[in-house]
Amino acid sequence: MTRMIFVNLPVADLARARAFYEALGFVNNPRFSDDTGACMVWSEAIFVMILTHDKWAQFTSRPIPEPGSSEVMLCLSCESREEVDGLYAKGGAAGGTADVGNGQDHGFMMSRALVDPDGHVWELMWMDPAAAAGEMPAEQAA
C-alpha cells in the first residue's frame, strides 16, 4: 500500500480556506467534507484536512497557534519552475500572503513560500529530476 499523508489544519473560515486551496489546484473530496471540515486533495497520496476551530477542538485540547507564529512549514513539490511561480501567484491572489520567507534558487532547485489565510506556511518547491534521482554530480547539486 502506498503511504499517504493527511495534514490537518485549523481554519477560522472554512469557505475562505477552501477557496484558497482550490485556487492552488487542490480538489475537494466531498465524501470526507461537511460544514465543519473539508478534505482537499493534492495527489493520490497527499490530503489536507481543513477543520473549523470547533472541529479541531474535538481532536486536541492544545491551543491553536496565533497567525504569525511559526509552528510548521509544509512543502509541496511542483513539476516545474513555472508551476512554482504560478501557484505562488494564485495563492497570493486567493487571500494568501506571498514572500513570507526568502525564496531560494540554487539552479537545480528553487522554492517560494506563502502563507494561507490562517497563517499556515506553504513552501512550493521544484527540483531538477536528475538532482532528485542522484544523477547530478554532487558539486552541481550542492
Descriptive account of the structure:
The protein has helices at 14-23, 53-56, 81-93, 129-132, 138-141; strands at residues 5-11, 27-34, 37-43, 46-52, 73-77, 97-98, 104-105, 109-115, 121-127. The strands form two sheets. Strands 5, 6, 7, 8 and 9 form a five-stranded mixed sheet that branches. By secondary structure, it is of the alpha+beta class.
- CATH topology descriptor of the largest domain: 2,3-Dihydroxybiphenyl 1,2-Dioxygenase, domain 1
The CATH superfamily of the largest domain turns out to be 2,3-Dihydroxybiphenyl 1,2-Dioxygenase, domain 1
What is the count of DSSP helices, taking H or I runs of 4+ residues? 5
Order of helices and strands: EHEEEHEHEEEEHH
Radius of gyration: 16 Å
The chain-level mean pLDDT equals 89
What's this entry about, in short?
The chain is α+β, with helices and mostly antiparallel strands.
Q: What tags apply to this protein structure?
A:
alpha+beta, five-stranded mixed sheet, 142 residues, 9 strands, single chain, 2,3-Dihydroxybiphenyl 1,2-Dioxygenase, domain 1
